[in-house]
Amino acid sequence: FQPKLLAGRRVLITAGPTFEPIDPVRGITNLSSGKMGFAIARAAREAGAEVLLVAGPVHLPTPRGVRRVDVRTAREMHDAVLAAAPRHGVFVATAAVADWRPATLSEHKIKKGGRKLAPSFELTENPDILAEVARLAPPAAPGAPGRPYCVGFAAESHDLLHHAREKLARKGVPLIVGNLGPATFGRDDNALLLVDAQGHRALPQADKLTLARALVAEIAQRLADGEGG
Ligand code: C5P
User: Fold this and answer.
1) 160 CB under 6 A from ligand 1?
2) Cβ–Cβ < 8 Å for 192, 180
3) Residues making up the binding site for CTP
4) pLDDT tens readout for residues 128-160
5) pTM, 2 dp
6) Which of 226, 209, 225 minimizes the C-alpha distance to 2?
7) Atom of ligand 1 nearest to the CA of 74
8) How far apart are CA 55 and CA 37, in angstroms?
9) Ligand 1 atom closest to residue 154's alpha carbon, by position in its atom list
10) CA 140 to CA 207: how far, in whole Å?
């Protein structure tokens, strides 16, 4: 028997990388596979939530019963998320959003022929989707539109706890989930570190669906304890 821990809740999730075009055939992206976010979407749906998954370019099937919106760039992801966030009780940001994008998009393919120097690109900062959602006004009454309970992710190569604590403060979110496993991108297993203002707790090495179910149970517990709307 699997209790429906998130029955009646709406959960919004971002997953995968973003792709920031340079010209019609090239762009900047990263190695995020989207597996962790898709696993969380599946686990939240299993727990009875209504789930909206905003996905960057990934090669993964949509979990059953989950509504999915595909986007390509950080700005598209931003617009899809900000339009939906106030109607959701939980926002889980697993996407590896590109921090920067090329400042200008070349209309034509940039050609090599005749060039003496390699081209250089000016970059400009992308919006921080999680920080913006975390700044929304809280719901005026239970069930009214407003800021969802926000969960961020941290993929760091070193000093995970330090960076996760810094992210809690900088993004203004109550819970940051760190990737403890080495080079988790694309793998089927991971280990997580839950970090909040009180302290931290590890979820040991397991496949991503097992971890996703544990994280969903943790979020449900926090909502039941009165955190969030
Ligand atoms: O340190 P960083 O800004 O990369 O924080 C990572 C967390 O913030 C992740 O939850 C990621 O999904 C989210 N993020 C975001 N928009 C950005 C950058 C990161 O939502 N532009």
Assistant:
1) no
2) yes
3) 99, 109, 127-130, 153, 167, 171
4) 999 999 999 999 998 899 999 999 999 877 899
5) 0.96
6) 209
7) 21
8) 9
9) 6
10) 39
